[in-house]
């Protein structure tokens, strides 16, 4: 436990000063440790079953604050890039619904919007950009999409527009990683051309009916009859330059992968695309262990901060997972078992970190 406590303590000492001067650092710290230690319902019910020093309503003050999450996330990312420069790092963009089961409203910037009498209103959705090496997964930025049915026309933003915004803000931060992985939802010609213009190496899944140009032949991708684990150099209609396309079986599904990296080997292309799976693990484990799907909140600011705490907790736990192995849940349980062998768990845990 000493090594892990030391790693976590060092990271918190770097990150916590960034939230000043608008946030109570002690409340922020304890609330963050609550996410790391407790189960997925932590933010809804109680900070601890054994310790009532801080009641939950006091800690909710952290959710009311204007926290600059970008500063925290990017600082953590830069730290990992400096500590592990030899790693192959990638960027990942994807989205996942923020389900509020049985909810009769949706959280928007204008407050709660009732969906009574409305049909098929989508849940809010988390659109995120993250840095990963296949084990460590650090969210860098996120946007929360709201349905057009509950959003004012002048404030509605498409998910694809949020994609542009996330990547553009990333360029401003000037991190060195320029390899971007994403799914076919964001693989429009306009996205791909924009990324090429900005100097990104992108890798994406594309639909089997994608229109392509191979030699002098214009056709759909499936008409080329590419064999399993075989690749071709071709052009995507509307996209500048040539791309490499490979057909693989991934998670028992036949998929086509495209990249603008013409020099990459087929083996490395497959390996790189599989790094995108870390975002699916983030979605699943954040919902199972960090409360991303347990959203009992009624304001936009609190929703933003709830998601921010989930993302930061996941990033820190994934750093520890890089040292210990296992899943995010495994790391939480190891820390939990260590801490709950003692009384006054949170106070003692903070003391242990500081020692």
Description:
By secondary structure, this protein is α+β, with helices and mostly antiparallel strands. The chain has 2 domains: 2-183 and 276-354, no CATH class; 204-275, no CATH class. It is built from 12 helices and 12 strands. A 10-stranded mixed β-sheet has the order 5-4-1-6-7-12-11-10-8-9, sandwiched between helices.
Q: What's a concise summary of this model?
A:
The protein is α+β, with helices and mostly antiparallel strands and about 350 residues long.
Structural class: alpha+beta
Profile the largest sheet: 10 strands, mixed
Query: What does the radius of gyration come to?
Result: 22 Å
Number of strands: 12
Number of helices: 12
Q: How many structurally independent domains?
A: 2
Strand order of the largest sheet: 5-4-1-6-7-12-11-10-8-9
Pick out the low-confidence regions.
45-54
- Mean pLDDT equals 87
Shape call: globular
Strand content: 15-25%
First-residue to last-residue Cα separation: 12 Å
Order of helices and strands: HHHHHEEEEEHEHEEEEEEHHHHH
Task: Tell me the helix content.
Answer: 40-55%
